[in-house]
Write a structure and sequence with these properties.
Length: 181
């Protein structure tokens, strides 16, 4: 009787292990097919967008236009290196007011990223009478409204004159690049 019980338990255990082993093989066979499908989706050709000075660029609900680029010799703030000034226009195409800031703009050159100089940006937007209309410093922009002003970067002369210089514009996590030359 003990032999039958031992043999029956062993047989059931063997059948259970064999059944589990068979399922693992079929699951493993299915997995590469799923990965291949994912890889095919990733390899779809991406549409390369190219923007330049003067082009309106839409990012989220915002429309950005870089109107001009300059390197002035004087601003009331002192540059560590050279000021690169972008004359920009922003338009809110959304349904709610957006807080715009000079941090929406970053210079890119290869792998390097340069932040805007908020104090110099305020100075560049200051009128002769001392008022500042468009400081790009936590300024509210209502729907269907647009604002123009200057965003300033304190960079080396080499960076300011570089032929591969781009400005990255952003709204939340969305970004676009605009060529500055």
């Amino acid at each position: 009787m003990k032999k039958f019980l031992l043999m029956g338990t062993t047989a059931l255990l063997a059948l259970g292990l064999a059944a589990c082993g068979g399922q693992e093989t079929s699951s493993t066979a299915d997995e590469p097919k799923q990965e291949e499908v994912k890889d095919e989706k990733k390899e779809a050709p991406k549409e390369e967008k190219s923007f330049k000075i003067g082009d309106p660029v839409t990012v989220g609900d915002m429309e950005y236009t870089i109107n001009d680029k300059s390197n002035p010799s004087t601003l009331s703030s002192k540059a560590s290196s050279t000021y690169l000034i972008l004359d920009v226009t922003l338009k809110n195409n959304g349904n709610e007011a957006i807080t715009v800031d000079s941090s929406f703009f970053r210079l890119k050159r290869g792998e390097k990223t340069y932040e805007s100089d908020s104090a110099a940006s305020m100075s560049a937007n200051q009128k002769e009478d001392g008022t500042i209309d468009n400081s790009f410093s936590s300024q509210k922009l209502n729907p269907d409204s647009e604002v123009s002003g200057k965003v300033v970067f304190d960079v080396t002369l080499e960076v300011a004159k570089a032929s591969d210089l781009q400005v990255q514009v952003q709204k939340d996590a969305e970004t676009e690049l605009i060529d500055l030359n």
